[in-house]
Amino acid sequence: MTLIRMNVNGSAKSLEIEPRVSLLDALRERLGVTGPKKGCDQGACGACTVLADGRRINACLALAIQYDGCQITTIEGVDHPLQEAFVRHDGFQCGYCTPGQICSAIGMLSEYEAGMPSAVTDSGGLGEAEIRERMSGNVCRCGAYNGIVGAIMDVAGSDAR
Amino acid sequence: MSIQTETTTDTAPYVGRPVERLDGPAKVSGQARFAAENHYPDMAYAALVHATIARGRIAAIDTAAACAVPDVIAVLTHENAPAMIPAPKLSLLDLSTVASATSVNYLATDEVHWNGQPVAVVVAETWETARHAASLVDLSYEELPAVVDFAAEAPNAVPERSMPLMPSKADKGKAAQALADAPFSVDLQFSTPPHNHNAIEPHATTAVWDGDQLTLHEPAQNIPWLRKHLAKRFGIPEEAVRIISPFVGGAFGGKSRAWPGVLIAAMAARATGRPVRLALTRAGVYHTVGGRTPSTQRVALGADAQGKLTALIHTSVSRTGRVGGMAEPITAASRHLYAVPNIHLSQRSVELDLLSNTFMRAPGEAIGTFALESAVDELAWRMGMDPIALRMLNEPDRDPAGGQRFTHRMLREAYTRGAENFGWHQRDPRAGARRDGPWLVGMGVATAYHPSMRMPASVTLRLHADGTVVMRCGMHEMGMGSATVQAQIVADEMGVPLASVHVEYGDSDLPPSAGAIGSVQTASVAAGVIAASTMLKRSLLTLARRAPGSPLRGRKLEDLQARDSGLHHPDGGQTYAEILSAAGRDHLEAAFKPSMLGFVARMAIDSRRWVTGASGAQFCEVRVNADTGEIRVSRWLGVFDVGTVINPRTAASQLRGGIIMGIGAALSEQTLIDGRTGRIMNPSLSEYHVPVHADIPHIDVDWLNEPDPTTPLGMHGIGEVGITGVAAAVANAIRHATGKRVVDLPITLDKLL
Amino acid sequence: MKPFAYVKPVDIGAAVAAGAAPGAKFLGGGTNLVDLMREGIEQPDTVVDVTGLPLSAVDDLPNGGLRIGALVRNSDLAADRRVRARYPVLSQALLSGASGQLRNMATVGGNLLQRTRCPYFYDEASACNKRDPGSGCDALDGFNRSCAILGVSDDCIAAHPSDMCVALTALDAVVEVTGTGGTRRIPLTELHRLPGQTPHIETDLAPGDLITAVELPTATGNSAYRKVRDRASYAFALVSVAAGLQIENGAVTDIRLALGGVAPKPWRARQAEQLLAGGPADEAAFRRAAQAELASAAVRPGNAFKVALATNTIVATLRELSNEGTRR
């Protein structure tokens, strides 16, 4: 067992864990932070997306011990216009992928702001094609993709530019 | 789960308004708590061990290494697990028997019936320990010959019995002869692969025993069925089982039966005396929760020189498991769509040594419409006719197979509106005529169809002196917006502001709902709401009429309007608060409990009188890369005839969701079952390709919004109709773009090279 | 996941020493190794977390090339201005390689050692010579849509899954490796092995060998990456093409071509390059060259389509590059 310290949603946490515990399981099972979801446990769905020092990652593929000393933001620590926009645009149905979608969108918007490209960059501006490509690591089986893209367009339009 | 509604001052009806989801704020803030997110002190974690052969016996099971792992609490196998009572057999007298997902008595037998069957469970202090120890359980088998290859076995199929109340067979006239005589005909063979639901929330159970009382946090689509099933399996009264399921992280049919996980979790909790969480891995879901059957289908159509259909033959072969499964109504939609004098519809199936097939979004219709609607399109090509014109020409006035009248049928209107709004008339009828750089562009259409049904649902309404109304019903929320739409209906029926309605759901302690299956829940519960509202208003009127000086004295309920939180007639009225206050009551309650027998009788009568279904016209534009065969759906429009739409916001999402799952089925989804071993080889979201953001364009949905005269508020269920016809619309658009008719799903790029 | 010891050295010497111990495995971003460990395919006794090492820089080389630290995250490398301007094929390959989240985690060094996605490699119940030497290969007569057609053996037809490696191969990248015997430089084309009879040995690295950097020679021309897959995004390549093309007076003066999704290693298409070099830059030449490269393909029913797909994708990518060259 190893003692690690993380700042989770603004509060300092320390916990004794085995090195094999993922960041996702540390949050959900040890710290009771259940906003990040387990959908595949292998980086194939994005439901576990959190922000680690501001960058979006898949918490299921992260060993918690590798994030010792990091700032972790989960949906519980998010206070962002996207949340209201998701409700307005009906950017979810069952709500299970939603925390990951929102955390991913926040990370994605800051990547875009920082000038980081995507596989479809050249298309000019943060249009629907850009958002879809950049959000493709977040699977929504209910098929709320239109609402999600709409919510992001809405917030990016009023906020980011 | 309890939710209070938002404030609004509008006086128009709530039904028809795009009210935002009442549970939206909880879902976007991480506050919505799913089944695996309920913690108990002293909770232990369980992990399954899965068989790796398709059929045989366990020769030896060595758990020593697993037991030796520190923090392992128990390793349960058929050698030491407490036996459950066997699963009840399917009986029409007790529909909860449908919850019996397989006949296997898990961990009570050394028999293996499918590759992936759970054969042991490890309970440990942590999830990591449980899963690791599970990997150390050593099994050896005596293998028996297994039949697992659907394609190889399909020729041995035998005639299949239809699902109760969902006929899929038909024989009218002489279809084979008419086909042979027809001047124009098509006769095509189709195939569709197995599919899995892939709800993003994997099945997860948190099971807690208190003496002989069992509490379960479980994502469930049918709480009453599951409750009854568990009571039977564990030999306890139904009342001793509590199922709490306020949020279900997607289901699509996959959470409607008692699959091994929930049973083994409850068993492990009882055996260890600990609260137990069993959260399936993604592969675990594939190995223990059934999916959609694969199929081969034949559709043959004959037409006269004008395009009037003279013959329709639609036959299918699908599969069940030797240990469970059921017919999926693959040819059912073909009963209802075309005016043809000669019809032959029949289904056959094979039993394989695989996990049972099960309900998955529009079982039968989703893949049956692929074949039927592809064939209709191909006939249009052969005849040089516009595919919409061909459909219009053959639109029936009465049900073609049964002869009943339709309660509601507006397919012509749907096609007309869709063609206009999609720009169908700009379509060059030639194949391969439109090109944009390397992309070949094509348009296709297909018809969507799903029957409208209802099941009994109990609803309690309680009116409080402060004017709030609490609706209680153990209904299910898997993303349909259940609480939101029912709150809208309650508010209208009772004439109270939406903000005054509280909805409690997702709990077996509440009055039992209809299952969230077969697109029945919303209409079924709405019927309960309407009945309970009427009862409640009648009781209020009775109370009011007893009070001296009440302006409602001598009035009949039929003369009154429920509005402004009271009962009113043109000359006056009373608020509910006034009525209760005058009677000295702090609340009044009405409980509607439908009779199952009466319900079934009614359904039987109705089905002889008329046919009710949701339908629609699906319009698709695709782009096919001329170099690589890559296919992109670039535009979509679905125009639906689904009766009254209660909430345009959530309805649009459900219809879109169906269409998107249909696009997945059309282009990329398939469960790969190795024909040598029965092993699922892509049990993951990496290799089972559900659509991602980049695959999905803006999906335009529209509806005619004409009420059906025979359904509650005129509505049809909309959970499933969206997926029907989609794969055909895509295939037909590809046919237009490339000239190629692809008859095997999914239409991957290699089929276009 | 089997319990393991975890160490996080802060200098390369210590990392190499720790990594040389039996049962040790280097851990970078974790996107592949953690998954494989959870599935029980990798079972290290010790995990040596190298993310504390100072290997995260991208530096210009005096010869005009670029030196990329092994711990540079995929997303940072893809966004690097120099990479985007001088090696667009690399940026594009990285961007098409994984989701934004995964790119934020995955490192260059880890990606070089990414393991196959063959379904039988991932399934404990299946025979796989790569996972379990000598057990056989269930992919030969099983689901092999994702499998390789070039450089395969009777023991293994698993395809290499990396996109980044395909681009780096086309760019003549050199891998810097520090091991117990010191530092050496390996051309990327020689880092990975073909399966032969030992598909479980995937590279020429010895225990303790730590990839510390990748060096790119001076960029030579216009380049592009084209990935074809079963979804529009977020899926492994069925076929991918990394190409660099320079044309003068209608003739090919520089050609680099590498293929992904079709071979057990990132596949440098030398035969095609030789046919194209100095010749005309037209569609017929592109197709002849592509066909020559794929002439030796050993296909199975499930992956036979890759011959036509790879041919067409090579042609389309070179056509696009030559059009861009002409437009310029």
TrEMBL record, chain A:
Pfam families, A to Z: Fer2, Fer2_2
Keyword check for Chaperone = no
Q: In which pathway does it act?
A: Alkaloid degradation; nicotine degradation
InterPro entries registered for this protein in UniProt: 2Fe-2S-bd, 2Fe-2S-bd_dom_sf, 2Fe-2S_ferredoxin-like_sf, 2Fe-2S_ferredoxin-type, 2Fe2S_fd_BS, Aldehyde_Oxdr_Iron-Sulfur, Beta-grasp_dom_sf
One GO molecular-function annotation for this sequence? oxidoreductase activity, acting on the aldehyde or oxo group of donors
Q: Which residues form the 2Fe-2S ferredoxin-type domain?
A: 2-78
Task: Decide whether keyword Iron-sulfur is in the record.
Answer: yes
Q: Which UniProt keywords apply?
A: 2Fe-2S, Iron, Iron-sulfur, Metal-binding, Oxidoreductase
Protein name (database record): Xanthine dehydrogenase YagT iron-sulfur-binding subunit
- Organism, per UniProt? Micromonospora pattaloongensis
TrEMBL record, chain B:
Which keywords belong to this entry?
A: Molybdenum, Oxidoreductase
Stretches of the chain forming a coiled coil according to its record: none
Domain of life the protein comes from = Bacteria
- Pfam families (alphabetical): Ald_Xan_dh_C (PF01315), MoCoBD_1 (PF02738), MoCoBD_2 (PF20256)
Task: Kindly give the InterPro entries that the UniProt entry links to this protein.
Answer: Ald_Oxase/Xan_DH_a/b (IPR000674), Ald_Oxase/Xan_DH_a/b_sf (IPR036856), Ald_Oxase/xanthine_DH-like (IPR016208), AldOxase/xan_DH_MoCoBD1 (IPR008274), AldOxase/xan_DH_MoCoBD2 (IPR046867), AldOxase/xan_DH_Mopterin-bd_sf (IPR037165)
Q: Does the keyword Metal-binding apply?
A: no
Which residue range or ranges hold the Aldehyde oxidase/xanthine dehydrogenase a/b hammerhead domain?
29-145
SUPFAM superfamilies given in the database record: CO dehydrogenase molybdoprotein N-domain-like, Molybdenum cofactor-binding domain
Q: Which Gene3D superfamilies match?
A: Aldehyde oxidase/xanthine dehydrogenase, a/b hammerhead, Aldehyde oxidase/xanthine dehydrogenase, molybdopterin binding domain
Task: Indicate yes or no for the key word Repressor.
Answer: no
Q: Which GO terms describe its molecular function?
A: iron ion binding; oxidoreductase activity
By what name is this protein known?
Answer: Xanthine dehydrogenase YagR molybdenum-binding subunit
Query: What is the protein's species of origin?
Result: Micromonospora pattaloongensis
Its lineage opens with:
Bacteria, Bacillati, Actinomycetota, Actinomycetes, Micromonosporales
UniProtKB/TrEMBL annotation, chain C:
MF annotations from Gene Ontology:
FAD binding; oxidoreductase activity
InterPro entries membership:
CO_DH_flav_C, CO_DH_flav_C_dom_sf, Diverse_Substr_Oxidored, FAD-bd_PCMH, FAD-bd_PCMH-like_sf, FAD-bd_PCMH_sub1, FAD-bd_PCMH_sub2, Mopterin_DH_FAD-bd
Keywords linked to the UniProt accession: Oxidoreductase
Q: Pfam family of this protein, just one?
A: CO_deh_flav_C
The answer to keyword Glycosyltransferase applying to this record is no
All copies of the FAD-binding PCMH-type domain together span 1-221
Q: What is this protein called?
A: Xanthine dehydrogenase YagS FAD-binding subunit
